[in-house]
Every structure is written in C-alpha cells, then in structure tokens.
Amino acid sequence: MLGGLRTTIALCAITVVASTLAGIVLGTLSVIRWRPLELLLRAHVEFWRGLPTVVSLFFIFFALPTVHVYVNAFLAAAVGLTLWASANIAEIVRGAIVSIPRDQFTAGAALGLGWVSVMRLIILPQALRRMIPPLVGMLVNLIQTTTLAAVIGVLDVLEAGKQSVERLTLQTGNPHAVEVYAAILVVFFAICFPLSQYASFLEKRLVV
Questions:
Q1: Which residue among 10, 76, 109, 186 sits deepest, i.e. has the most Cβ atoms within 10 Å of its Cβ?
Q2: What would the pLDDT profile of 50-91 be if each residue is shown by its tens digit?
Q3: Residues 6+ apart with CB under 8 A from 19
Q4: Domain count of the chain?
Q5: What is the CATH number of the domain that holds 23?
Q6: Residue 137: which domain range?
C-alpha cells in the first residue's frame, strides 16, 4: 500500500498543478471578446465538463491505441483528470473575472495599460478571493476523483488496498477490510482537510 500511496500522491500533485495552471489560462482567455476564440474555448470547456471522467479515462487509455497513440495507465489518468478538472477550473476563473465590474477594465485602459497589465494588476487580484472557495472545492473533488484511475489499472492506494484485502483473505481467511479501507479513508482526509483549512485561511486574509 505504500507504493500505492506514492502513486496517489504523485497523481494528485501532477493533476492539481497542471489543471490549475491550464484552467487559469483558459478561464482568462475566455473573457477576450473575439468570437472565434470564445466559441473554441466554450466548446472545449463544455465538452470536458459534460463528459463523465471515467469515460475520458477509458477513451485515452483504451481508444487511442486503436489509432496508434499509446500511453501508460498513469499518464492516461493524469491527462484525463487534468482535462476534466481544467475545464471546470476555467469556468470558475471566468465567472470570477466577469463578476468584476466592467468599469475596472475601462479604468485600466484609461491609465494606458494593455489588456495583459489590466488583467494582472487590476482584475485578477480582485477576482482571486472570489474564486478561492469554489477553486479549492474543485481541487478537493479532483483529489478524491483520482481514485478512478484504478479502473484503468493504475496501482494507486485504493487499488493497492483492494489487492491487500484479497491477499489477506487468501492468506488468513480474514480480509481485514475495515482496517484497510479505514486507513485509506484517513489518507484522503489527511490530504484534503489541510487544503480546505489553508483555503479558509487565505480567504480571510485576502482583501478585495
């Protein structure tokens, strides 16, 4: 199970970082008023948000090899989860940005600032506090959703626990399922709870 825990932590770290960065970029670009870009980003976001995560994993791991695109189970899980989570994060970021009054954009332009400078110096700092609660909730959900990686063969902590229960059943006749799955519960609580608490701390400290 220790090996499975290392796999779970690595998968969580990669998907959280990748999906957050991608989501922020996609969400920021989606407020640009250029119709082709708007339609393209909206299609991307709605497609991956609307697709069940497990279907994404199955498509990447089982379907892509039929067109000679081969990825291992861990990479397939990381890509599938990142696509799903980044689409949701992009919508969170977009919603936070559009909630800022338009006169903030106008004021920045009046000061001679370009679009990038207006976003970096004026809009995003104000939008940050508004996006933190749903963003952290999304990241906690993402961490919990990494357990779906087991369905395509990733030996994460959940799959390792399942194999441990089966092995203990064969060896001793007692699966010790309560102890094993309780340990897995503690692992995910230990990962998610501090993240939620840190987000609450940031929310109280940040000033719009």
A1: 76
A2: 889 999 999 999 999 888 888 899 999 999 999 999 999 999
A3: 81, 82, 84, 85, 86, 89, 142
A4: 1
A5: 1.10.3720.10
A6: 2-205
